[in-house]
Amino acid sequence: MSDDFSSIKSLADVTPELMNKLSEGTFTDLLGLKFTALSGDEAAAEWVVTPQQHQPAGIVNGGVYCTVIETLASVAAGAWLGDRGTVVGVNNNTDFLRAVREGKLTGVASPIHRGRSQQLWQVVITDEQDRTVARGQVRLQNLNTRN
Length: 147
What we know:
The chain has about 150 residues and is an alpha+beta fold. It contains 3 helices and 6 strands; from the N terminus they run ααββαββββ. A 6-stranded antiparallel β-sheet has the order 1-2-4-5-6-3. The longest helix has 20 residues, at about 60-80.
């Protein structure tokens, strides 16, 4: 696969595999986040917890969850908006529900509201036993494409 991404007009054109390629060398790549689903109706990804993601108490740092939640909501919201514009996050509210030290985690974003000027997405992060470990909401502003 070529690294020429010039044919991509919007996130609506991006598959999970291509999103993983586009994410190489980014902050989410440092976490090991791998997209498994991507559309304007849902985004999902998984990653394996490593000690580098821990806070001093030996559990996943809340910033990791905030990053994953913001990423999944933003990418799905951008895929839904498509070539009508881009999105930017304006609020991320994340709840930390269960301490995690190791294992694979999965995040799934789903829309709560998709409007003309803003979107609201919910993201739930679960562990390998399908227990919710964190959840969040991200409000995004739809920015129109400028010609």
